[in-house]
Amino acid sequence: MADDAKAAELMKQVALVPRSENTLVTSHATKADPGYLVELAKEVAVANSTIKAGACGKLEIIAQQIRFLQEQARQVLLDASTDELINKASCNFVKKPGKVYHLYKREDGQPYLGMLSPEEWGGKPPHDFVGSYKLEYDMTFTPLEKVTKRQQEISRVEDLFSERHVVADHPPNIDIQRHTNYNIDPCRYINRPSIEGVKSEAATTSAGPSNGHVS
């Protein structure tokens, strides 16, 4: 009775193909054999676990990518906010890309840009020092402490472009004659008769001697 109850429970977990005259299913496949059903149920359980594990792994990768993109978006918004603040700051000179400028804030909270760093003020600038920024050629500002890192990234990109241009300007030197083996005899193309000449000669030969004379 216990085996029958176990078999009945397993039958609920395993989907078997019903027997009919139109399906090619062995009789063993539809027998409620407890041992067979247990093995089949184990296979189904393993398959389900594998599917779940694979799906969870893919979802974890997607979650990591989402977190990375969220952090990238947060950094982009932060940089844009900083650029907007610096661009709106008071300034009495024309800003030039490649130069480093220093941001200060007055007592009333009004920011302004200066050319002198706190060190050049003798360590005692007239107003609160906010930070030093380099104006890039795309008109964005990079904090002075991140200039070296950004320059390294730009150098790596320039190196990649340089390598690509070197390959494009100097393709591999391949000796075509050495790597080609066509075995072409140039003598075949010297004084070669035309197709019309060959046809005329063949017609004369097949017609035989004319006017009853034999040479």
What letter string, H or E per element, gives the SSE order?
Answer: HHEEEEHHH
Main β-sheet, in a few words?
Answer: 4 strands, antiparallel
The end-to-end span amounts to: 115 Å
Name the structural class.
Answer: alpha+beta
How does the overall form come out from the CA principal axes? elongated
Low-confidence stretches: 210-215
Helical stretch tally:
5
* Rg, nearest Å: 43 Å
Beta-strand content bin: 5-15%
Provide the residue-averaged pLDDT: 75
The total of beta strands comes to 4
List the helices and strands and how they pair.
Elements: H1 2-13, H2 34-88, E1 100-105, E2 111-114, E3 128-135, E4 141-143, H3 147-169, H4 176-179, H5 195-207
Antiparallel strand pairs: 1-2, 1-3, 3-4
